[in-house]
Recover the amino acids of this structure.
């Protein structure tokens, strides 16, 4: 027998690489901009991450405020638990999406943002992705609270696994007849399609670098973690920065940083520094848990597990298959972007995508983190798991946590399953020989 | 000889299996997990070593051969006496610890009377001890805590009355001491205890000894074989707090899969219902885990739930199954929430439902939940092996058979009498492979 291993006294400050620090500064600057709205007089559009129309929003000089990102920030800062309970006090059931409850609770407690300053009231609610029905209900609640203009841009579900010309026509028509006129009215700014084209050109540039960065995970060892690290990477593109020079700078910086890591043969940077030897390469399906983010991540990197591809980094929109925002077809490409949101893809498309990831990124298998309160992700996940397992012949596993409700993160349970999974992979690799 | 130990630290009990180089189980040990996994691991492995000694004795005396009834009888007597020696030793420790308590301020003023009372209680406990280990004697539990505790309570009441000390304060001294005693790692030389037990057998049961075999001599010689602890693997919920390093730890899911495979090589689906989790595991023809599902944060419907129900009904855990078996009309129960178990039960009793019907309904509800976990792990593929403490419960098994038949048709269902050791068995094989493979 060997010595008892005790947990370290107090976790040290998380180690971040330069791109992470840069991303953090960008996010902070955005929150400061939101907090300064009472002074600057800027108008605010509240909108969601999946399929957000940041370029269009910018055409009307609106600042975007993303309620899910606020919920995530509150989860990371351990504020969400109290907010969720506050919302439950108001009558929201235990099963309601915890992003919603965190947001409602935050509003009830003074709408103080992650920087400690009050978040502004929205002037318009822009719902641009309707695949998640909770989003609609969420905005109904916000509309009741703020009584502001609400725009619903309906995105058809890709039930047949493809985008048809009718879908695009239908969406472009909505943009022209409903979304743009309403945004003009709220903002008092006239729509200029050339301005939109310029933003889209910038978006595509940043998108190229993001895709390259994520695909560098095909390298062995992978220089990035495409799930935990990936969350940093998607912040600007899925948030308020797509279409800006800041985003172009950030993604170029990120790509170069990752290229440097490859040159040095380094694995991903973790909160505890460079990851040790890469032992397992995983594809992860589903959002992460934010209340115990670091503890959750540690369960992976302590075992040498790196996530080489994840579906969550496609939650705002999917670029893998060649889609880029296109200045030559501005409204059409906005429509296509919304249609390409990961959870707007039907189950066979999701299975194809994950199977492709396991193969292309030479992963050891698929891990599903099933979120208790997210129906759009969780429905069908067991079926997805079976199917990917069958097609790839690689072992899959299933863990359960929640987005921002700390009550639904059971560390011992998650760790137990993860360790079992890693050992399962090990066993499978070696057959009987490696079974020890 | 080289031995390989697998330890399964469950939330309720800790199990150990001792394997030899040929993959044969030579010993099994079990103890209550208490709140001290370190001690529990040591006690369980010591128990496995004791059991292993008996296996070696049996081999040396050819006790399993036909016509060797005398040797069997001798070994049975040896085991009873060994347990008695062990029990008496622990009683000594408990008495000393109880007396040690008297120095504390709580007992100021009554220390003298307490000491007398304690001496008297232990005198009575020692006097009746041989009866507890007499041939054919039935014990509700083999754990020292359970036996000593229940008997202490009985005697303390009478003694306290006579000695003029409060019953509560006497129990208080016991409660504090038992924790201390239980958390003390096992001490003393095992071989020495065996020799003392042999001496007791010769003294108390001389008729067992025939003139032909020198049983005592054989035992003595067998004790010279060293049981080398070559490698150890730990698993189970307590594994992270175990005093083992990482390479000595395996996931209980893998251990259960492998253990079930060793018991029944044709197993493809394993259900394990333990104290705080329920696992559905799919394994391949080599015992390698293909997929698994387990309950998430909520432990509704696990073994611990039955424990609460037993407490609530003032029954022993092992009495639940037999009572439920008497039911012909199981109650319909949907919730297996451990927290609400008491309320649910009282509610139904107050509605006039029969105890056996409620219990039968509870067992069905547990199994329904397990079936859901199994189906999420990939369904049932022949053969099916049921493991964990709940597999010992006949009412749970009856419901499982029914539901498997309804959902999956005819499936071979394996339940090993030693199923509680499945995880430890898998762990011991991992230990063996770590060295031999």
């Amino acid at each position: 027998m060997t010595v008892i291993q005790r947990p370290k006294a107090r976790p040290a400050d998380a180690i971040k690489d330069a791109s992470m620090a840069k991303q953090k500064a960008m996010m902070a600057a955005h929150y400061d901009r939101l907090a300064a709205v009472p002074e600057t007089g800027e108008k605010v559009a509240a909108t969601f991450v999946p399929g957000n129309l940041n370029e269009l929003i910018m055409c009307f000089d609106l600042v975007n405020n993303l309620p899910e990102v606020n919920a995530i920030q509150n989860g990371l800062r351990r504020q969400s638990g109290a907010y969720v309970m506050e919302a439950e006090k108001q009558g929201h059931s235990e099963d309601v999406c915890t992003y919603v409850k965190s947001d409602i609770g935050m509003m009830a407690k003074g709408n103080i943002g992650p920087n400690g300053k009050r978040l502004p009231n929205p002037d318009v609610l822009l719902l641009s992705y309707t695949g998640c029905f909770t989003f609609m209900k969420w905005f109904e609640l916000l509309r009741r609270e703020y009584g502001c203009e609400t725009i619903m841009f309906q995105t058809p579900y890709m039930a047949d696994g493809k985008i048809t010309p009718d879908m695009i026509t239908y969406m472009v028509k909505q943009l022209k007849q409903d979304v743009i006129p309403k945004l003009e009215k709220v903002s008092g700014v006239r729509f200029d399609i050339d301005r939109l084209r310029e933003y889209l050109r910038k978006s595509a540039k940043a998108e190229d670098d993001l895709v390259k960065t994520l695909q560098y995970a095909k390298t062995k060892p992978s220089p990035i973690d495409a799930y935990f690290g990936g969350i940093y990477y998607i912040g600007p593109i899925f948030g308020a920065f797509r279409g800006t020079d800041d985003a172009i700078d950030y993604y170029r910086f990120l790509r170069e940083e990752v290229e440097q890591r490859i040159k040095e043969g380094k694995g991903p940077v973790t909160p505890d520094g460079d990851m040790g030897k890469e032992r397992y390469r995983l594809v992860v399906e589903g959002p992460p848990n934010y209340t115990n983010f670091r503890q959750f991540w540690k369960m992976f990197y302590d075992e040498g597990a790196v996530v080489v591809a994840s579906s969550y980094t496609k939650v705002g929109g999917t670029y893998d298959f060649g889609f880029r925002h296109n200045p030559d077809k501005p409204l059409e490409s906005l429509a296509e972007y919304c249609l390409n949101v990961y959870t707007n893809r039907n189950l066979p498309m999701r299975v194809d995508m994950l199977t492709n990831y396991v193969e292309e990124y030479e992963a050891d298998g698929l891990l599903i983190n099933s979120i208790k309160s997210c129906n759009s992700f969780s429905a069908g996940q067991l079926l997805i798991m079976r199917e990917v397992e069958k097609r790839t012949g690689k072992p899959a596993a299933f863990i359960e946590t929640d987005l921002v409700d700390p009550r639904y993160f059971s560390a011992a349970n998650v760790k137990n399953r993860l360790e079992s999974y890693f050992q399962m992979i090990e066993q499978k690799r070696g057959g009987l020989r490696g079974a020890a | 000889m080289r031995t390989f130990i697998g330890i399964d630290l469950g939330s309720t009990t800790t199990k150990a299996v001792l394997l030899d180089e040929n993959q044969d189980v030579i010993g099994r040990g079990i103890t209550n997990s208490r709140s001290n996994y370190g001690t529990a691991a040591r006690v369980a492995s010591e128990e496995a070593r004791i059991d292993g000694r008996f296996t070696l004795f049996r081999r040396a005396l050819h006790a399993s051969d036909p016509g060797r009834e005398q040797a069997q009888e001798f070994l049975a007597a040896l085991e009873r006496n060994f347990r008695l020696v062990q029990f008496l030793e622990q009683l000594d420790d408990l008495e000393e610890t109880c007396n040690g308590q008297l120095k504390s301020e709580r007992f100021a003023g009554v220390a003298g009377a307490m000491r007398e009372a304690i001496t008297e209680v232990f005198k009575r406990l020692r006097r009746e001890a041989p009866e507890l280990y007499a041939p054919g004697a039935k014990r509700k539990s083999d754990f020292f805590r359970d036996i000593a505790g229940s008997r202490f309570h009985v005697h303390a009441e009478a003694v306290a009355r006579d000695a003029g000390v409060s019953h509560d304060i006497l129990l208080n001294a016991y409660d504090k001491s038992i924790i201390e005693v239980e958390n003390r790692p096992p001490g003393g030389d095992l071989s020495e205890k065996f020799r003392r037990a042999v001496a007791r057998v010769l003294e108390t049961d001389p008729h067992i000894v025939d003139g032909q075999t020198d049983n005592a001599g054989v035992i003595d010689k067998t004790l010279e074989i060293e049981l080398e602890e070559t490698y150890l693997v730990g698993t189970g919920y307590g594994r992270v707090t175990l005093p083992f390093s990482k390479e000595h730890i395996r996931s209980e899911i893998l251990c259960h899969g492998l253990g079930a495979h060793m018991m029944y090589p044709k197993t493809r689906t394993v259900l394990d219902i333990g104290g705080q989790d329920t696992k559905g595991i799919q394994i391949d023809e080599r015992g390698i885990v293909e997929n698994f599902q387990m309950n998430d944060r909520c432990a509704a419907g696990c073994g611990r739930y039955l424990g609460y129900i037993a407490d609530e009904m003032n029954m022993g855990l092992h009495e639940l199954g037999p009572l439920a078996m008497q039911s012909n009309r199981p109650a319909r129960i949907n919730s297996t929430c451990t927290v609400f178990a008491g309320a649910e039960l009282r509610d139904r009793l107050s509605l006039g439902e029969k105890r056996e019907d409620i219990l039968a309904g509870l067992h069905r509800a547990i199994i329904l939940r397990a079936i859901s976990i199994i189906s999420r792990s990939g369904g049932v593929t022949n053969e099916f092996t049921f493991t964990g403490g709940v597999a010992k419960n006949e009412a749970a098994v009856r419901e499982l058979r029914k539901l498997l038949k309804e959902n999956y048709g005819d499936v071979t269902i394996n339940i090993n009498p030693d199923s509680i050791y499945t995880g430890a068995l898998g762990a011991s094989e991992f230990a063996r492979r770590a060295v031999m493979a």
Chain A has 17 helices and ten strands. The radius of gyration of chain A is 21 Å.
